[in-house]
């Protein structure tokens, strides 16, 4: 036996002997590395404005600042009409645009770049396809739509912003964005703002499409599939970027006022690595609320970008501030109420995590759109086929209405009617 063989045998014997020893269990109390506190839901009044009838809903969350106050909506909703708007969700394409409403007409964008105008009675008015004559690829879904001053503004996954005549659907002008334009455009005054997926932002003249100025942030490949749009007032425009950067500018000239970064995510979640701003900025008074995909939402001072608070809640769409509360659907499929002063959670309600289907395969993950506050109640549209209403004070479920084939967009309210797009490519109206 060689010396090397003897050494190996001795090592194996030592390891075997060590395995036979009993584990030593140290005495004393076991304490978690992180302090874990049981969360208890609380109920309290929400000082939101009284319901008021709104004729239009021109952008995400109602307007260019992405904020509207408690639009009027009756109780006991029932389906009024279902109108086809084109292609629905498929394995290759998705509907990403919520409807907008102006002048008793609803404008929609389907999964195949079709913009459709539908009357409030459910009748089709016109349809325009925005697929380029020579597209870089056969099918690109994604995009958003807004309406202002007789014009419809639509972005597409083909990387273009197109402006149409709201009465006829005729193309007025088109701007190549050099990258997918999956966030909805924002129109304020004589400028239209859009952020492309390559972290480039554009400010274009509404009438001509001429570039007024541009803005850029750090490019990133870890992007959210949709994209957040600009929030704007007459004095400020707040741009969200895939990198997690948020840049506020003066509308005229694009001179920067401040820059902030919403970074970090929920511990233990794979999505925590994605800092992409997925919750469109929402401007309310002297604050702007903005959230990322990974698990952070923040309240910032509108004028200097100073952080007021940060909450560990991811959000896939704009939050809904209302008085002393901020409502959102988080990255864990929970409907959450935060305290507007501190960002602390007041209550949280678990929404369905998976769709209940008859398939023997793994159930698809349920998507939840909203919330919106209308008629004094919180409303969430879900891909599992339900339009649910909750009490804003306590989070208690008030009722539910069936959505044929499930929701593919956030609900919107105008003229006392709620509109939502279904996964099968239908515009549904509830009253």
Task: Give the SSE layout.
Layout: H1 3-19, E1 79-84, E2 100-102, E3 105-109, E4 114-119, E5 124-129, E6 143-148, E7 151-156, E8 160-165, E9 171-176, E10 186-188, E11 191-195, E12 200-205, E13 211-216, E14 231-232, E15 237-240, E16 245-249, E17 256-261, E18 277-284, E19 287-292, E20 297-301, E21 307-311, E22 320-322, E23 325-329, E24 334-339, E25 345-350, E26 368-374, E27 377-382, E28 386-390, E29 397-402, E30 412-414, E31 417-421, E32 426-430
Relevant terms:
single chain, 431 residues, mainly beta, Methylamine Dehydrogenase, Chain H, four-stranded antiparallel sheet, 32 strands, globular, disordered N terminus
What does this entry look like structurally?
With 431 residues, the protein is mainly beta. 48% of the residues are buried. The protein has 1 helix and 32 strands. The chain has one domain: YVTN repeat-like/Quinoprotein amine dehydrogenase (Methylamine Dehydrogenase, Chain H), CATH 2.130.10.10. It has a 4-stranded antiparallel β-sheet, with no helix packed on it. A 4-stranded antiparallel β-sheet has the order 2-3-4-5, with no helix packed on it. Strand 28 (386-390) and strand 29 (397-402) form a beta hairpin. It has one helix at 3-19, and strands spanning 79-84, 100-102, 105-109, 114-119, 124-129, 143-148, 151-156, 160-165, 171-176, 186-188, 191-195, 200-205, 211-216, 231-232, 237-240, 245-249, 256-261, 277-284, 287-292, 297-301, 307-311, 320-322, 325-329, 334-339, 345-350, 368-374, 377-382, 386-390, 397-402, 412-414, 417-421, 426-430.
